[in-house]
Amino acid sequence: MLRYIIKRLLFVIPTFLGVSLITFALIQLAPGSPVAYKLRGEGGAMRANFETEKIIEQTKALYGLDKPIIVQYLLWLRRIITLDFGKSFKDQRFVMEKIWETLPITLQFTILETFLIYLIAIPIGAYSAVRSRSFLDQLITIILFLLYSLPSFWVAMLLIMFLGGGDWWNLFPVNGINSIDAYAYPWWKWLLDRLWHIVLPLFCMTYGGLAGLSRYMRTGMLDVIKQDYIRTARAYGLSEKMIVFKYAMRNSLIPIVTIFGGLLPGLISGSVIIETIFSIPGMGRLGFEAVLSRDYPLIMGIFTISTFLTLFGLIINDILYALVDPRIRLE
Amino acid sequence: MKVIKIKTVIIGVLIPLVLLFSCANINLDLVNSSQVELSGVGLSEFGVDVSPEQGDWLIMRLSAEMPHLNPLTSTDAYSSLVNSWLFDSLLDRNPATLELEPRVAHKWEVSDDHLIYTFYLRDDVLFSDGHPLTARDVKFTFDKLMDPLTDAPHLKNYFIDVERCEVVDDYTVKYYCKKPYYQHPVMLGLLEIIPEHIYGKGDFNNHPNNRKPIGSGPYMLSEWQTGLQLVLKRNPYYWRKNEKMPHFDRIVYQVILDDNASLLKLRRGELDALTIRPEDLLRRVNSEKFRNQFNIFIYPRPAYSYIGWNMRRKVFSDSRVRKALTMLLNRRKIVEKVYYGMAEIIESPFMPNTPEYHSGLSIIPFSPDGAKKLLEEAGWLDSDRDGIRDKDGEKFYFEVMTTNANPVAEKILTIFQEDLARVGIVMQIRLLEWASLLERVDSRNFDAVLMGWQMPPDPDPYQVWHSSQSEKGSNFVGFVNKEADELIENGRVCFDREERIRLYRRFQEIVYEEQPYTFLFAPKAILVVDKRVHGIRIYPFGVYEREWFVPKSLQKYTYSDD
Prior knowledge:
The structure holds two protein chains of two kinds. Chain A has helices at about 1-30, 35-40, 55-65, 70-80, 95-130, 135-150, 150-165, 185-225, 230-235, 240-270, 270-275, 285-290, 295-325; one strand at about 45. Chain A is mainly α. Chain A starts with a helix and ends in a 7-residue tail after the last helix. The mean pLDDT of chain A is about 80. Chain B has a domain at about 65-210: Dipeptide-binding Protein, domain 1 (Alpha-Beta Complex). In chain B, the strands form seven sheets. Chain B has a five-stranded mixed sheet. In chain B, helix 10 (about 320-325) runs antiparallel to helix 12 and helix 16 (about 480-490) packs antiparallel against helix 17 (about 495-515). Chain B contains 17 helices and 23 strands. Chains A and B meet through helix 2, strand 1, helix 3, helix 6 and helix 7 of A and helix 1, helix 4, helix 7, helix 14 and strand 20 of B.
């Protein structure tokens, strides 16, 4: 096991080099240049400008874009070994500083979201499997499909319209993650204020995943319930509770648990749409805006972190497999 | 138990569906009934006959947060909005006459050859940390801007013909220019001054004070809660303090990205002023409560949209074809259906309702028959009877590109596409994201493009229309006209506005004849302001928040620390 883990960890290095080289080349080859973007400003209307070659060259040199791509890549590689991700083109602030600012906000959402999804999806899925084809199971199926197909931006709009104090109820705030004067609150009031602010966005982020995961759970559980050993357990006259929770549930959790490793990279990516609608300064928006403005250092910074998380997620996946299923051996 | 659960679940699903339908109905009703009502909306001024008083707060929205506040390195419109409260420039522009007026410089002189500008500074201007503003700060600002290590390409561009800045004494500064240019006093005069003792040390591009700006403007930054809000308080050292300036105790900018959410906050009384979309106005304008709570101002925005024809392409090389295309665009219908009347049709690149705009140019009407005639004259006939016009074996087919960030552009093009198809022209719409669109335009790799330009108060057609800019500059449609070149060049060195207007009138006639662009619209801004805010005037280039105030009896927020 230990040998296996070390081997896998060593494989991370060449994988990372390959993936980062491809990404580095890809974002530079994509049409659009950060210098042209900066010169022209953002949005639909442009300012007229003199296109002076001298200033373009100066800015390229300032951004380090005057060298061939492969040299730029090697320089970038040398810097990230010392964990220096460089400075954002947009405002010349350190990439890590910008990521650190937004990461906790996104993490708080994604962790809560994951927790809620598992907490609700597992019982729902298990229930629909045990009472498979009952009226309630079918009703749950319909509702989950409905939820799954409702686009989250639309649901967010409805929530804002009806619960955000327009012409209907004024129950929840519609922007930001804290009240304006929250910094002066005692900690418990601050926490309540934060929770109150994140109810709507959290709901929008959760319901889709909830629908998906509970389907996994239902299918997994159905498979297990049909197994011979469950029939044997029934034949032995064990109580239904015992069968479901002790024998069926544990085995049907295997696929669910192992999905967990794959969720790791998703934890930092955040939701662009929901973050924008509710004015939440998170990673989703940071990454999206970085791509739009061709902010290469920031794109590479976010990319590096999510590559590592993906690679480690895969390793954790394998380890989890071995832990929950004794039949699997890692060699 | 079970039954009750099922019921609540079903209701839970049904409610959103019902609401969805009711929303759709509300929209339709309002669009139909409000067209007439709208004529009564839109003030040109409010509360201007009351004398200004100090106090109260002004809370406004920022639709995106700026990364930092530095007059030199900030590139976005939001930071220039906030910076204008925090920093002073040598001169000021009178919003009504658009003429330059004294600000930090109480007097200025121009040499006869228009190459040397001398500014005489007031000696009582202090930065918000109490340090005096001197000529050295002015020189520092200019030198820092032109430093190759400073990340400010967007601004440097405008100063390439300024050679150097010289400190004569503590309160006198001289600028030397390489060429005479009528915009030099504007650019030099309106450059915001940053203090050398703060920004002179450390890494300028990533300066710690980019998040704690220090200037000599009427306000200073009190706090900046990232992603939430910026609060500005009075600058205790402001040099016009004794003139009871500025009016508000606090200026607050709240960061709210979503349009619907900000409208909601406005209606809850949490915002004092907001620019809203035409459809939002239609939905609210008939509400008694809304009209009692707010004043509504409608005025032209200093920007216009256009479709640029790449004149290097064979299809667009003939001015008759370009004119025919303009005649096929039903601009009146678009103003009505897409903008709900909140836009003005234009025929030239200058700001409508200013003296520079040639009002004698009649609007080219929508006329498919007239367009057909012009197309036939130009040789575009449907010779193989397949429903698509052709000439010398080439079909009339082209691609128009625009940004995917603007749903209005897509709507305009869809209407255009249908009308073109009726006369046998195939247009493909292609939506690109902004950076890719710029790339295509810069490499001249496009047929036609729908984009926009901002219109500054001092127009100079050089960058967009001069033939020298056709290879690499902003003249990406490739408009080359000798007479227009001459007019543009003369305009740049003409220091008399009346004379310049005369030159620009002739220039506009040429552009009108040639139709390198099909000019579209100057959209209007719809500004909704809380009724307690007085002193609002509409100027040719919008509103001027520095004049706004709230009379003592109506003040809402009383907290202030001075």
